[in-house]
Design brief:
alpha/beta; two-stranded antiparallel sheet; 7 strands; 5-stranded parallel beta sheet; globular
Amino acid sequence: MSTSMLCDMLRELRSLLFPPRCMVCGVSTTPTMQGICPKCRFDIPLTYWWLKDDNPTKSRFDGLIPIVHGSSFFTYKGRSQWAQLIGRFKYGGKWRFAHTLGLWYGSELKASGLYDDIDVIVPVPLHSVKLLKRGYNQSRYLAEGMAEAMGIAVDARSVVRVRNNPSQAKRKANERWHNVDDLFAVRHPERLSNKHILVVDDVLTSGATLYACLSAIHSALPDCRLSVATLAVSEYISAIR
């Protein structure tokens, strides 16, 4: 028996013993569903902001820093299943979920045509201490999924987090902006010089952390162009028109 035949048999056996399930609701799925059942795909609160430049994610940074495009994939609603999914891939070790959602989001960005001139994707980095504790950066897996769908590269080394600031999750909106001063730095500017950079993060809440990352890149590389894409956006920002 050849190695390829043995691998096929093992995959079939695994699918019988451990059938794939929807990452959101847990019902059984087929491989063609790519980890998300039809009901959950229908129920996801998509923003469709990647189809237009005038949207709340892009407007969040108006007057703060110049960005070319900005979008978020879906609205983060309280304790919804989609919000819980982010918690699982962010803190629960389910990093593959981030990659799968990145593939979906990236395919939509590519189809929109607005992001055709993106040169490289930069995920918002974690500090080395937090990365060691968690074991992975969920934004990097999200970025890698998007890059795969869009056919472009990911640079996860040129921008670094130089300060291990406390978590933003439980801070009030106004407190978040006082927690991000000098948070990021560009260590390899030659890799990003004169490029159109898509900065990717998982959730846009106040925008403070993302702004700090964008600001560090803009200060080090005034010749580059910046765009933003987050997987989710808070209901507060979604309500701003």
